[in-house]
UniProtKB/TrEMBL annotation:
Protein name in the entry: Nucleoside-diphosphate-sugar epimerase
InterPro entries according to UniProt: NAD(P)-bd_dom, NAD(P)-bd_dom_sf, NAD(P)-dependent_oxidoreduct
One protein family per Pfam: NAD_binding_10
Ranges of residues in domain NAD(P)-binding: 7-149
SUPFAM superfamilies recorded: NAD(P)-binding Rossmann-fold domains
Organism field: Curtobacterium luteum
Domain of life assignment: Bacteria
Lineage start: Bacteria, Bacillati, Actinomycetota, Actinomycetes, Micrococcales
Amino acid sequence: MHVFLTGASGYIGSSVLRALVAHGHEATAIVRSDEKAQRVRDAGGHAIVGDVTDEEIVERLAHEADGVVHTASAESVDPAFTATVLRALEGTPKPFVHTGGIFTFGDSTAVSEQSPIDPPALTAWRVANEAAVRASTARTTIVAPGIVYGRGAGIPAMFVGDGEHEVRLIGDGSQRWTTVHIDDLGELYVLALHRAEQDGYVVAATGDNPTLREIAEAGAHGSPVVAESVTESRDRLGADFADALLLHQEATGAHARAAFGWNPTRLSLVEDLTDGSYVR
């Protein structure tokens, strides 16, 4: 399969690229610089220097590919990009795998594909765009990742200590985060491409839902772990970002396993923070 991939030099996109290549697929990525293009080539993909806001390039690459994966999801990009891709793919069997996010479901102890939508301000923009994707007659699947971790990066890197400076919680740290390893996530995107559903939706979560305090204590490596008030967190991180990270979310990822055949195998977040990729 020849796949048109966006965000191939980013955190999620680079994992999808590795998974595509590992499964014998050909990937063409649109990137913004020669440096990023070289990183894509080094990973086994093809690269075109351009911009995902260029509708002519996007439409051409969508027509040339056997499927599209969009991981460069952003408020300023998604409406026009998805409209262009959906227009190019409608009436064809080509799959389009789009990136959503776990914050969409708000506070929930049982996040699933059927959960009500209740996004924080940070990601409220996703709602209308995802509705347009789901209403299309193209073969679309939205992947909604939990908190993504692994390879020493992602949001959890905020809680890696040096044994000296304090690691600050967000609020009191009692909220749970539903999580997914970056490499397991890349595999799920490939499975979604293969499945090529009509109006598919899958929550990408391994079923591991540690508290933020557990996360911070695993990553602190001797640094003091300090709670703070919600007001302090909002002042430090910005209200919208803090409010999203204060959400209490738990998920099992049961649909991904049962329907997609997904089998996440990587270290849990706490294990990875304790003695895995986050150890400095």
